[in-house]
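// run 5 | inverse folding | seed 20
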């Protein structure tokens, strides 16, 4: 089991203080939902956990595996290769660990089958979002991070996508940011409220 210990974490951008002495304990085999208004540090915290930014002070430590954890992520931007198909985008992330037919089967659970081999630039925003989600779930990782993952999804598609995510977690820690209280209940997750540091 991976344990994440966040101690007295502080982060500012110029005069804007985003995180102020934040302390948390997170563990694998759980779902944690970060909730707060825009601009109160959700994305910043996710980036700090992934090591994409450095804190001004405080620490983030990982224990339980003896080696650094592997992350897969859904960012606010989909970060897909637009000229490639959804299947090819996932192949870029997973290499040859999964067959093309396996990837296509996974995508068909949350995407219309006819879209799986089309260039991403021809897809709707919601389809691109689901491609990014499928990529994160199929990528080898210990921790899955999702930043506002359900943007552009209607209610029915969102429910189907959440069911897919839950079925593919395999005891990994899922850490996601959301504005929706219902997401916490749908995931049966732990609600973490970040308050403004300013």
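// decoded
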């Amino acid at each position: 089991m991976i344990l994440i210990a966040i101690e007295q974490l502080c982060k500012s951008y110029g005069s804007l203080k985003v995180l102020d002495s934040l302390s948390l304990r997170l563990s694998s085999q759980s779902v944690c939902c970060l909730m707060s208004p825009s601009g109160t540090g959700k994305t910043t915290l996710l980036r700090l956990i992934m090591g994409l930014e450095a804190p001004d002070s405080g620490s983030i430590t990982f224990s339980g595996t003896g080696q650094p954890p592997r992350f897969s992520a859904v960012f606010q931007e989909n970060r897909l290769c637009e000229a490639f198909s959804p299947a090819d985008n996932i192949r870029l992330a997973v290499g040859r660990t999964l067959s093309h037919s396996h990837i296509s089967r996974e995508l068909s659970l949350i995407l219309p089958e006819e879209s799986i081999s089309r260039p991403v630039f021809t897809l709707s925003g919601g389809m691109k979002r689901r491609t990014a989600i499928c990529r994160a779930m199929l990528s080898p990782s210990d921790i899955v991070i999702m930043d506002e993952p359900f943007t552009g999804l209607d209610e029915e598609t969102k429910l189907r996508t959440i069911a897919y995510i839950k079925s593919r977690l395999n005891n990994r820690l899922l850490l996601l940011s959301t504005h929706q209280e219902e997401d916490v209940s749908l995931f049966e997750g732990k609600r973490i409220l970040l308050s403004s540091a300013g």
